[in-house]
Design goal:
It is a single chain. With 597 residues, the protein is an alpha+beta fold. The protein folds into 2 domains: 187 residues, Penicillin-binding protein 2a (Domain 2) (Alpha-Beta Complex); 337 residues, Beta-lactamase (3-Layer(aba) Sandwich). 34% of the residues lie in helices and 22% in strands. It is built from 20 helices and 24 strands. Strands 2, 3, 6, 7, 8, 11, 19 and 20 form an 8-stranded mixed beta sheet that branches. A 5-stranded antiparallel beta sheet has the order 13-12-24-23-22, with helices on both faces. A 3-stranded antiparallel beta sheet has the order 1-9-10. β2 and β3 form a beta hairpin. α4 crosses α5 and α10 packs antiparallel against α20. The radius of gyration is 36 Å and the shape is elongated.
Length: 597
């Protein structure tokens, strides 16, 4: 007898579900294998088939900030406007006011885009039309480059699927021309072209990254295909020694003084005596790094570093310091000097004003700024000794700042000195120095004879927090503290007994100054230009405990052609520095030293 076994509907359902479950599990396993386990292999296969594209991930160029962290230069994102001509030519369908679909033509859309980018509508329209005419399957064209974030947002709100906006790095200088002569600028491609942007490019430069991805035929990025092949790295933050507000003030002040005196150009420099840190170096004319091409090329840098000039009588303080420190004479030594004399080897030296034979002290020579007097003191110092000291003071070589294009000045070796040069160099002729070099000399005197390397940079902070390029605090002793003190007191007496005493006085503070009127050389002839001078007033305060050195320089002033032209700006500049840093007034008055023996 045969028994027939039949399955119930319930059993058949369970069996069917089991089969479905097995198939489903097989599909899931295969998907995991394709999309997870072997995803990289499949992406590589597709990339090898030429289906990939890539885009740049831009790193941001590092910011430049002042000593307080105030931003002087920063990076912003700008955008290019790219279009897919094949899709754009078809127009776009949107819903009208009555919810019915409406097709907008490319000509209508081009007018909308042009209203945002500021272009002519016909120009925008022609981008797509010309691309399609050249290749009906064209998928790429550029409508505009370097548009702002606001323009990018306005275009993105149009919701046009055929527009893309790859970012690019831009550079912004919030304060315009403030410190523009120092900051420098970058080109439209983001490359550093001048100033600290160039000098410290290793700190500021970013490194762009790359993302590789797959695209469909319609240009849409396929999900899950984006692969970062290289990460973007932002540049470091460059912290300067500059005080932004002080720099701004000095920029306004020197602009006013240049215009008031009819000068070609001018500069004001502020340096911290004990550290050598430059707190301000303002020039006029200067450059706005946001638009450097608006400024003539010769005015886009910092001529304070690049263009040396004869320092004139400011150099007499250096001769005095060398003679005292080397033991060639003492502060009690006197010389007899008339206003015009013929010295050794037939060298002829004259003072700026007529006078009879005076028995000058060293202080008196500085007060009256006697060329003949300092020449006679200079006779007591061997030429090689003077030269060696000048080198120790930093002359003849660029400063530690190493600004792009910085000059080392002109300091001929002793073997090339004739008798006239021997004397001329005692009062600042026959050689040339940059403004920072001269400020470095006075910093050494103000700092008790210890020369600190000048610095514009506090340090570079990398994206990972690492700090580099911090200036060294070590200085070099050039002259003794006693020599520096004696010369400082002599310069105080220039401020109190000199012809400009009333113009440079700052109530409550002891001030030390020296002036200089250097002759200008005609680059075409090599001879001195008639009636053209480079004038300087340099000094420090409080002279009993020097904190800051200030130098005011004018190139070819016309209303007043001597260093008296610098006095008003010098007094205002030094007063502002003392206020800005809340320097305590002097607790004593300047000891009066005799002019004549």
């Amino acid at each position: 007898m045969t028994t027939t076994v039949s399955r119930s509907p319930r059993q058949r359902t369970v069996a069917a579900l089991a089969v479905v479950l097995v198939v489903l599990i097989a599909f899931v396993v295969r998907l995991i294998d394709i999309q997870v386990v072997n995803a990289r292999e499949h992406v590589d296969d597709s990339l090898a088939m030429g289906l990939q594209s890539s885009r740049v991930e831009y790193g941001s160029r590092g910011a430049i900030v002042d000593e307080h962290g105030v931003t002087l230069a920063s990076s912003v994102h700008r955008y290019d406007v790219q279009v897919d001509p094949m899709l754009a030519a078809q127009g776009v369908t949107v819903r009208g006011d009555d919810a019915a679909p409406v097709t907008r033509t490319w000509a209508e859309i081009a007018a909308q885009i042009a209203a945002v980018t500021g272009q002519d509508p016909a120009t925008v329209e022609s981008v797509v039309n010309d691309a399609i005419a050249a290749d009906p399957g064209s998928r790429y064209a550029i409508i505009a480059t370097d548009v702002s974030t606001e323009q990018y947002r306005a275009l993105a709100e149009l919701g046009l699927p055929f527009l893309t906006f790859p970012p690019r790095a831009g550079r912004v200088y919030p304060d315009g021309a403030v410190a523009g002569n120092l900051l420098g600028f970058v080109g439209s491609d983001g490359q550093a072209l001048g100033g600290l942007e160039l000098a410290d490019n290793d700190c500021l430069a970013s490194r762009d990254g790359e993302v590789v991805f797959q695209q469909g035929r319609d240009g849409v990025v396929l999900p899950g295909t984006e692969v970062q092949t290289a990460p973007a790295v932002d540049g470091g933050t460059l912290t300067l020694t500059i005080d932004r507000d002080l720099q701004w003030y000095m920029g306004q002040l020197i602009a006013e003084q240049v215009q008031n005196t009819g000068s070609v150009r001018g500069a004001i420099t502020v340096v911290e005596a004990k550290t050598g840190k430059v707190r301000a170096l303002a020039e006029y004319p200067t450059v706005d790094p946001n638009d450097p091409t608006a400024t003539p090329s010769e005015e886009r840098g910092s001529w304070s570093f690049t263009d040396p000039n004869e320092p004139g009588s400011t150099f007499k303080a250096l001769t005095a310091a060398i003679g005292l420190d080397s033991g060639s004479f003492t502060s009690d030594t006197t010389v007899t000097a008339a206003s015009r004399e013929t010295l050794r080897g037939g060298a002829r030296v004259s003072d700026a004003f007529a006078h009879g034979a005076n028995t000058y002290t060293l202080t008196g020579v500085l007060i009256d700024s006697s060329n003949v007097g300092i020449s006679k003191f200079g006779e007591m110092i061997p030429a090689q000794t003077r030269y060696d000291y000048m080198k120790k003071f930093g002359l003849g070589t660029p400063t530690a700042i190493d600004f792009p294009g910085e000059s080392g000045g002109i300091l001929h070796p002793v073997e090339q000195w004739g008798d006239q040069t021997f004397y001329n160099t005692t009062f600042g002729q026959g050689l040339a120095v940059t403004i920072p070099q001269l400020v470095g000399v006075y910093q050494t005197i103000a700092n008790g004879g210890v020369r600190m390397p000048l610095s514009l940079v506090e340090g570079c902070t990398a994206a990972d927090g690492t700090v580099t390029d911090a200036p060294t605090a070590e200085g070099e002793r050039v002259i003794s503290a006693d020599t520096a003190s004696k010369v400082s007191q002599m310069l105080e007496n220039v401020a109190t007994q000199g012809t400009l005493a009333s113009q440079v006085a700052i109530p409550g503070y002891r001030v030390a100054i020296k002036t200089g009127t250097g002759e200008k050389t005609d680059p075409d002839t090599g001879a001195y230009k008639p009636d053209a001078y480079f004038t300087t007033m340099i000094g420090f305060a409080p002279a009993d405990d020097p904190q800051y050195i200030v130098s005011v320089n004018l190139d070819e002033p016309r209303t007043v052609k001597s260093s008296a032209a610098n006095a008003p700006a010098f007094q205002k500049a030094l007063t502002q520095v003392l206020k800005n840093y809340r320097v305590i007034p002097s607790g004593s008055t300047t000891p009066e030293l005799p002019k004549f023996g």
